[in-house]
Design brief:
158 residues, alpha+beta, GMP Synthetase, Chain A, domain 3, SH3 type barrels, 2 domains, three-stranded mixed β-sheet, 3 helices, 8 strands
């Protein structure tokens, strides 16, 4: 399947899932449509702004969208609705604002100071720039340079 077709399916998945998650007071973190080990998956990651996701939340969303997703995709697949986990991806600019003060791992599209991989505390986010504190060094990383980012969980944090 072509990348553009997968991208179109993901876009349609957002359109049909967003009203359902909004109705339940949930936000979509990410949606993936991919092949893994010979099987196709639709993975929808949801969260509550100020509470933990429960199995009931995941089941409610899954039950409400299952038929529509089946109608959208013409191959066999597994539908998974879950929490993004403690090392959740950071996908949007609002994620970097929300998680200021948290430790994050960023993989960049291009090298910055001889590295594409950076881990540090998100100091702030302003005007398209992520301010990352890496062991006392202040980095300014343009949001559009981020290829992948996620929170980093450290066992000493609980």
């Amino acid at each position: 399947m072509e990348k553009s077709t997968k991208a179109n399916i993901v876009e349609k998945l957002w359109e049909l899932t967003n009203p359902v998650t909004s109705e339940f007071g949930l936000d979509i973190v990410d949606i993936e449509y991919l092949q893994d080990g010979g099987y196709w998956y639709v993975r929808i990651y949801i969260e509550k702004p100020d509470a933990e996701i429960t199995l009931v939340d995941c089941a409610n969303v899954s039950n409400r969208i299952e038929e529509k997703v089946d109608a959208l995709i013409d191959r066999k697949f597994f539908l998974e609705v879950s929490s993004p986990g403690i090392e959740r991806p950071l996908k949007s600019e609002k994620d970097f604002i929300r998680f200021a003060g948290e430790k994050a791992r960023l993989i960049l599209k291009h090298k910055l100071e001889d590295s594409r991989n950076w881990t540090g505390e998100i100091s702030s986010y302003e005007n398209g720039i992520i301010y990352l504190d890496v062991e006392g060094k202040k980095l300014e990383i343009p949001f559009n340079e981020v290829k992948k980012a996620n929170l980093v969980f450290e066992f000493g944090d609980f």
